[in-house]
User: Which sequence fits this backbone?
């Protein structure tokens, strides 16, 4: 199957959308990302719109600053969303565990208070 110019445009657009999604997830502006990668912010904007074809070197610099593997830039940030979902599930599991632990401690404390009242009642 022969690649066309449209395939290239779609590829660059998908790559750019991945950069944009990950940049926004990090709370960075195009200017911030440009400064941290030593690339001009208009170049970053062109990449995000799929208008520029960055070198592997520049793509690697962007990935490094965004704290992701180079491949994640091609996934549109989908693996970042998967990782965030996993972290949310971990947090929910921890909340459930802590809630159970709290209920156990609360029951132990109630038992302790009951014993304290019984001991106080026995004193003359």
Assistant:
């Amino acid at each position: 199957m022969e690649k066309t110019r449209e395939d290239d445009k779609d590829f660059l657009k998908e790559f750019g959308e991945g950069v944009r999604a990950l940049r926004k997830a990090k709370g960075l502006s195009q200017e911030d990302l440009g400064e941290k990668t030593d690339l001009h912010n208009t170049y970053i904007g062109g990449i995000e719109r799929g208008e520029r074809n960055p070198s592997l070197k520049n793509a690697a610099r962007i990935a490094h600053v965004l704290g992701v593997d180079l491949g994640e830039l091609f996934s549109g940030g989908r693996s970042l969303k998967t990782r965030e979902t996993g972290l949310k599930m971990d947090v929910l599991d921890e909340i459930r565990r802590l809630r159970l632990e709290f209920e156990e401690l609360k029951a132990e404390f109630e038992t302790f208070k009951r014993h304290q009242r019984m001991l106080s009642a026995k004193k003359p």
